[in-house]
Description:
- The protein has helices at residues 2-13, 63-72, 95-132, 138-171; strands at 29-32, 35-38, 43-49, 52-57, 79-81, 86-89.
- It is an alpha+beta fold.
- It has 2 domains: 18-89, Gyrase A, domain 2; 95-171, Topoisomerase I, Chain A, domain 4.
- Strands 3-4-6-5 form a 4-stranded antiparallel sheet, covered by helices on one side.
Amino acid sequence: xxxxxxxxxxxxxxxxxxxxxxxxxxxxxxxxxxxxxxxxxxxxxxxxxxxxxxxxxxxxxxxxxxxxxxxxxxxxxxxxxxxxxxxxxxxxxxxxxxxxxxxxxxxxxxxxxxxxxxxxxxxxxxxxxxxxxxxxxxxxxxxxxxxxxxxxxxxxxxxxxxxxxxxxxxxxx
Length: 173
């Protein structure tokens, strides 16, 4: 469940808020040497200005595939390729785009809630199996289920708080 929350934090860091940050694009998968590789493994990414990202591929031949991957991503960014480096101007967010990004945040939070609930179901099945095999008592089974529910509720609340914080960040002009 902790890993699910950490993954949510990483995912939401990639949703842009009008500020240029390498985390915005480092997760983008680029086809390179016949495999899909994260952008941060085949290029250096820097943010020299508040609204500009510069991508410097280690292999200049990969600039075209990097550019193509950025265009295919759901970030809505237009790369400027000069053959050696790729520049990404990060435009200020429009109100319409903010609303779209808030919907994306809500969808990702919901996906994590479902993942946490699935983990809870797996743990409940395991507890049921332990009780059936007489490895734990009925009382222990009941206590464990209560603890599991409290833990699940706690992680779901964490996911929702992270989502709300990101929504507030997106709503700021």
